[in-house]
Amino acid sequence: MMAGTDRVRDDAARRGIPIEIVERPPATSLEHAAELLGITPAEVVKSLVVKRSDGSYLFALVPGDRQISWSKLRAVVGVNKLRMPEADLALEATGFARGTITPLGSLTAWPVFADKRIAGKRISMGSGDHSFTVWVNSDDLVTGLDATVADITMERSTN
Known about the structure:
Elements: H1 3-15, E1 19-23, H2 30-37, E2 44-52, E3 57-63, E4 66-68, H3 70-77, E5 82-83, H4 87-94, E6 112-115, E7 122-125, E8 132-137, H5 138-145, E9 148-150, E10 153-155
């Protein structure tokens, strides 16, 4: 396994979060990843890096069939401006490329905000490597990351 998956495994162990890292063929999209894993897109959780106007960051955990509701997330975080940073900034800050990002093993620890719809599920998420996925109980993940759980998403637009 690659260094990214090792960082994920080590961080999860330190936090007491049981995970399973499994190899899978690289996916061309979130829907393709769900298909390869035999699950619905809602069970694939995206770890999105979000930048605040003060230059600090946070992670948003979003079910694959949904997208961030910026107004909801701003209200929960208590700020007026949030945005997605450029891919190179997310890579530099986390050590993970887009599509593999996870709060587990990130080079920088930030606050985590999880959409309430992931609660009580076994989910798949980024592993730090395009050829692997992490399986984890979402409640264990939320507890281990001390994440804030709230309604932070909306239906994904089809445009």
